[in-house]
Structures are given as C-alpha cells and as structure tokens.
Design brief:
Number of strands: 2
Strand order of the largest sheet: 1-2
Oligomer: single chain
Length: 84
C-alpha cells in the first residue's frame, strides 16, 4: 500500500486549501457558463479530505477513489445519485 494520509497531513492540506482560497480570489467558470463559488469548492474539498482521513486511506487509495469518481461523474450531466 502507499503512504497513509495522517491527520497532520490532512491539516496541512486544509491549511494549503485555505491559503489558496485567499490567493485565488476568484470563482470558477464552468463549461456551461455557470459560476461555481470558490468557497463551495473549498468546503467540498475539505469534506472529501476529512472523509479520506477518517477511512485511513493511503494517498494512492485516495487518488484511486478520486479517479473512479471522475470516471463515474463523467457519465452524468447532473450528479443526482445518492447511493448506487
């Protein structure tokens, strides 16, 4: 297995995300023309990283989950699935 994500690593990643949130003082323009607020992006990133830490995932495992999520989300125009 790869490197495990420790609570210290998560804390550092969250600090980096907060710093980047202030450095990147802009929202995100989506392909469909809608605006995705940077605050919401940061909030969701924090939730995801916290969940990975709770599960004790390694960095490689977390990357696998993220890639699989990208693959699944790419199959839908709107994410509506609660459980599948």
């Amino acid at each position: 297995m790869g490197e495990e994500i420790s609570s210290e690593s998560i804390e550092e990643l969250l600090k980096q995300e907060v710093r980047s949130m202030f450095l990147e003082n802009h929202d995100y323009a989506m392909e469909n023309g809608e605006i995705f607020p940077r605050e919401k992006v940061s909030e969701l990133v924090q939730e995801i990283l916290n969940k990975f830490a709770e599960e004790g995932l390694s960095v490689d495992e977390a990357k696998l989950i993220l890639q699989r999520t990208i693959d699944v989300v790419g199959q839908f125009s709107i994410v509506k699935i609660k459980d599948f």
